[in-house]
Amino acid sequence: MTQKSKDINTKCVHQGELPVDQYKSAVSPLYFSTAFDYQDQGIDQYPRYFNTPNQIGLNQKIAALDNCEAGLVFASGMAAITTTLLGLLNAGDHMVVQNSIYGGTYNFVANHVNDFGIEYDYTNGLTATDFADKLKPNTKLLYIESPSNPMLEIVNFKAVVELARKHNVLVVIDSTMGSPVNQLPAEHGVDVIIHSATKYMSGHSDILAGTVACSAKLRDKIAKRAKMLGGNLSDLTVWLLDRSIKTMGLRVTAQNNNALAMASWLEQQPKISRVHYPGLKSHPDHELAHAQMCGFGGVVSFELDQGISAISFLNKLKLIKRATSFAGVESTALIPALTSHALLTPEQRATLGISDQLIRFSVGIETTEDLQNDIAQAL
Ligand code: PLP
What we know:
Elements: H1 8-14, H2 38-41, H3 53-65, E1 70-74, H4 77-88, E2 94-97, H5 103-111, E3 119-122, H6 128-132, E4 139-145, H7 157-166, E5 170-174, H8 179-182, E6 192-196, E7 210-214, H9 216-229, H10 235-245, H11 248-267, E8 272-276, H12 286-292, E9 299-304, H13 310-316, E10 321-322, E11 332-334, H14 346-352, E12 358-362, H15 368-378
Parallel strand pairs: 2-3, 2-4, 4-5, 5-6, 10-11
Antiparallel strand pairs: 1-7, 6-7, 8-9, 9-12, 11-12
The structure holds pyridoxal-5'-phosphate (PLP).
């Protein structure tokens, strides 16, 4: 069976299984060793080289999930993002970066990449024309995030890839909000697919990790830098992440269904002025989302009426937890202006549409009636 012919759930459960050991266990064993026989394995097998048995297995699973040739698993989403950019770009290179992206990535680009001699421009929007407007002769990479965090805007993969091919530059996506269950950017020609595996891949709010999937050629480039930066994931956590991914297809499907139900319900609530969810017909990018995604994810953002204090609203929730991060099986909520996007200036947040009234709601797998009752009593 080719990688592509396998259903997502089959890949989640079986891809990357280690060869049957002497005990014929149903689950891959954990090789908790930092040292390996150099005569058998060569001198190059070492956790920081991303090639222990468990890392190799999970790297293969990540590649298969994102329909790519190769994968790499990192110690965090930010390790995956920073190592990829520093691996693919050299001093003197320029990149065009989507303006509405995760706050940590925004901060890395705005405050750190210049130290490495890398130039950048932020776009003014999410269309291919917005990216084209910022191209320079030394542009080597376009960086996108879709759906974007926390406004859930959608980038047109096909249009951005077409632009990139014309100018011979790479496209890198942070696909965390989509997950490999809901979108496969590589199918549209995106070159490098990154996830904060802390989110849907882990799914239980207990693992910090990141992944990269791409061609073997690009993987080798990124891995060369990765070995020096040392952002590998410990083998115990590699094993735990592999276990978590086995249920990712089921979890994300349940979250897709719950989030759509919650978004439709939230739209009817008088004290909520606006709901952002690509699965809603009212979302400006709904048609595009429908065309390039097969589910819309578990995150819904909504704006409370001006008269309601966002902090008091969150404090009154009983079932939905106040928490950073998203995509766990338990529902959580936060105020982006005070947490994920607190490092941006108020002006930068205003440009991106992130108001102080905005709540980012990560819908878990609970019964939607219980979630609705919780929000209704808090309102
Ligand atoms: N990308 C997105 C979209 C995120 O939301 C986050 C974290 O919240 C990251 C990347 C960074 O991932 P990590 O916290 O695993 O380093």
